[in-house]
Design goal:
Elements lengths: L25 E2 L11 H12 L12 H11 L6 E4 L1 H13 L5 E4 L6 H8 L3 E4 L10 H9 L5 E5 L11 H10 L3 E5 L20 E6 L12 E5 L1 H10 L7 H12 L5 H19 L4 E3 L6 E6 L4 H10 L2 E2 L1 E2 L9 E5 L3 H16 L1
Parallel strand pairs: 1-11, 3-4, 3-5, 5-6, 6-7
Antiparallel strand pairs: 2-8, 7-8, 9-10, 10-13, 12-13
Helix pairs in contact: 1-8, 2-8, 3-4, 3-7, 5-6, 9-11
The protein binds 4'-deoxy-4'-aminopyridoxal-5'-phosphate (PMP).
């Protein structure tokens, strides 16, 4: 027989998430760290890997890593769960707290993966849109959660792609107004120097998502984690893939956690460069730069099609992220903060394109 039965009808017309990965000379599109891990960490990783039993399955829960992270956060192993990147844990969230007849509160424009996961798990999405300046409509979120029918919410701080942080006061009000599980996605929190993680002790409905992909230079190794009450972690363990976190990534991440002090200077430099980039871009006529506490800047172009500008930047070797056709982000590009010379080059290239 040369035919195949149809897939799940949910997939009809579903457009897969497209990270728009295009190799370019200067990669400023995926909010990666512009530098790989520091040399001493690389050496320690290679040592560790040379002694690894590649024939054995990894520790399914990566307990050494959980312990190391728990120690950093002042928590217990049972408050921590590792995932194959934050992405896996986002999917697990939709599996564990979503599903048919259940509701997720979303605050767009934000990371589009949340909605895609909701869709795949049959979860209804309740949108509470951000204001024009991308600040959260705090009262609208509280009011909607207070209605009592939301099962979980995701609040991204700093938000991707807008760079906006959610205030601590607001997050506390949210945690107190509902028993919905509140995920605070802190994928970029090292660049805002703000975290809500210490409140995991006090709020059973708080779930913090972190990743090693950004500040800790490990986008290639795929490692993320959640911090939450042990009862919440137990539910995630029920839906996760048993061996999703491979032994190689565990070994790498363990060395990164142990040597995390070596990353601090690099993070500080990215924060400093964010200011330089923002200033340089804002000085170009027709470019509006939104304030950002992350390692990227959202810019809106005036009087010119941002999609065309995106292509012209790529022609010059600069890959940035084109959001110009995304709802609420019309004519916007997102630019990752790179190395000083990359940022300078990008500013120059954009200025030339807009002038000419
Ligand atoms: N949350 C946000 C807001 C992100 O931008 C990303 C990466 N694009 C993730 C989570 C997941 O990152 P990773 O899977 O690389 O850990």
């Amino acid at each position: 027989m040369n035919k195949v039965r149809a897939s799940n009808p949910l997939l009809d017309g579903l457009i897969p998430y497209d990270p728009k990965y295009i190799p370019a000379r200067v990669m400023l599109s995926a909010n990666e760290n512009p530098q790989s891990i520091p040399e001493p960490v690389l050496k320690a990783v290679l040592d560790r890997l040379s002694g690894l039993d590649f024939n054995r399955y990894p520790d399914p829960l990566a307990n050494d890593l959980r312990d190391a992270i728990a120690q950093v956060e002042g928590l217990d192993r049972n408050n921590v769960l590792m995932g194959n990147g934050g992405d896996e844990l986002l999917f697990d969230l939709a599996l564990a707290w979503g599903g048919a007849g259940r509701k997720m509160l979303n605050i767009p424009p934000t990371f589009s993966v949340y909605k895609a996961n909701a869709y795949l798990t049959g979860t209804d999405v309740v949108d509470v849109p951000r204001r024009d300046d991308y600040s959260i409509d705090e009262q609208a979120v509280i009011d909607r959660l207070s209605a009592g029918d939301i099962d979980f919410a995701i609040i991204t701080s700093p938000n991707n792609p807008t760079g906006t942080v959610a205030s601590r006061d607001f997050l506390i009000r949210v945690l107190e107004c509902t028993d919905a599980l509140i995920m605070v996605d802190e994928a970029y929190c090292e660049f805002s120097r703000q975290t809500i993680a210490p409140l995991v002790h006090e709020h059973k409905n708080l779930l913090v998502l972190r990743t090693f992909s950004k500040a800790y230079s490990l986008a290639g190794a795929r490692m993320g984690y959640i911090l939450a009450d042990p009862e919440v972690i137990t539910e995630f363990v029920k839906v996760r893939q048993p061996y999703s976190v491979d032994a190689v990534s565990q070994a790498i991440a363990l060395e990164v956690v142990r040597n995390r002090d070596l990353f601090q200077d690099r993070i500080d430099r990215i924060i400093e460069q964010r200011g330089v980039l923002a200033e340089g871009l804002a000085a170009i006529e027709g470019v509006r730069v939104y304030p950002s506490d992350a390692n990227y800047l959202l810019v809106r172009l005036e009087g010119i099609d941002a999609g065309e500008v995106w292509q012209q930047l790529l022609d010059r070797g600069y890959l940035v992220r084109d959001f110009s056709r995304s709802a609420g982000l019309e004519n916007c590009l997102r630019i990752t903060v790179g190395l000083p010379e990359e940022n300078e080059g990008l500013i120059r290239a954009l200025a030339q394109i807009l002038k000419g």
